[in-house]
Amino acid sequence: MKVTVLGALLAAGAWPALGQFQLYAVNGSIVQPVASTYDFGSVAPGASVTAAFQITNISTQPVMLNLLTVTGIGFSVPPASAPALPVSLAPQQSTGFTLIFQAAGPGVYSGALNSVGMAITLLATVPVELTGEWVTGTGTQFLSAGPVNFGSVPVGQSPTVEVVLLNQTSAALPVPPLSVSGAGFSLASQPAAAATVQPSASAALELQFSPTTAAAYTGTLAIGGQNFALSGTGVIPPLPTPSIAIALAEPDSAQQGTIAVGLSAPAQTQAAGTVTLSFVPETSIPGGADTGIAFVTGGQSTAFNVYIGQKQGVFGSANSIPFETGTTAGVLTVTVQLGSNTAQQSITILPAVVGVTAAQGVRSANSVEVDLTGFDNTRTAGALSFTFFDALGNAIGAAVQANGASDFAAYFQNSDGGTFELKAVFPVVGDTSQIASFQATVSNSTGNSTSARTSF
User: Fold this and answer.
1) Residue 412 phi, psi dihedral angles, 5° rounding
2) Domain boundaries along the sequence of the chain
């Protein structure tokens, strides 16, 4: 038998008379007298239950309280709450203390609280059922000791907590019905239906917390007729800092490259960001914006996704996005926006000679036609020169010169890039079949560019 003795008897003649003290149970602001029995009720195996009490001098004279003992397995008074005896109590004055009951094994428990003029029977029942514990970061904790707390969890993540149902009895026990309620909480796994736990064995289940917003969450785990509190907080963690990786063979016009977005750390939450292309042309270049500076998917802005645990952005299912450099000299800037974080990188596209991307010759009975497709990233094309060759590769006469500056200027003034198509028709006196090929030279502010020799 466990005995807790507090204080000591005073010398003869100092004992208080019977009926001068009353025991009260204290529950918040509610104070109720305890006559002869106090029942802690049903207490889960291993759980700790605390009850607050006070002893009051109900007489009209000061009285010395000098005895307080607690007996019985599982019943005790925490030393920190025990009154220092002996203590003199004035009329209607009280002294408080707490009682704790805790027992691991099932059964009906009884004890006694004895004080001056009173003997109170203490009761508690530990039912024959499985004992629940949850696995914390540092060990285990009884479910009845407080809420299962997931702590702060980034929105989009779904951590789990293991709960172990222990059989601390000598008989096989069935796993009772299990359920979870409360937004954000669920059962990730549980024992099979009609499972039985043998003595000294255990069964496990997993609770999952999946916050969808930054907020505090509460829920309930029901194990048979018992309910246990669940708690957790959804948080939005800071997004990692993005970086830009541009793959571009040459920083020139009419090129295709790719852009990838790296992250400073693995993402803790799912998010979406944007990559934007912006362009500032050389100040002397006429005309409007260059719509050729764009992603191959279209437009100058595109979205990417960031997934939990990854260290780079994803464009659809790819890790990079192709883009075109357009046909205008200037500064192309790539900007990445991810939450409040940004990254920027620029490419300087220098002025260049005219690029001839395609040439075609058309011959008729009285003329030949030269068709050129190309781009001028300075938009300053002007002087033109055409040389024609016979079948043996000999030049036919002198090169034909032309000044297309005004035509080019008028065209580029309203263009949205440096691309152009040129058609030149040359009347021929004689047999046009003798003209086998041609070369064209187009000049701009940077220099001359000559097409490959093209056959008619």
Assistant:
1) -70, -25
2) 3-126, 131-235, 242-349, 355-455
- What DSSP string describes 260-285? EEEESS--SS-EEEEEEEEEEE-TT-
Pick the CATH number of 242-349 from 2.20.28, 2.60.40, 1.10.10, 1.20.120: 2.60.40
Helices (H), 339-450: 405-413
Q: Which CATH architecture has domain 131-235?
A: Sandwich (2.60)
Amino acid at 201: A
Q: Give strand pairing partners of 130.
A: none
pTM, whole model, 2 decimals?
Answer: 0.62
Output the CA–CA distances (angstroms, integers) from residue 114 to 82, 99, 122, 327, 351, in the order listed: 14, 13, 10, 98, 101
The residues, ordered by sequence, that sit 6+ positions from 28 with a Cβ below 8 Å of its Cβ are: none
CA distance 334 to 306: 18
Distance CA 101, CA 104 (A): 10
Span 282-305, mean pLDDT?
92
Q: Tell me: the pLDDT tens digits for 421-444?
A: 999 999 999 999 999 999 999 999
- Report the first-to-last Cα separation within the chain, whole angstroms: 117
Q: How far apart are CA 197 and CA 191, in angstroms?
A: 10
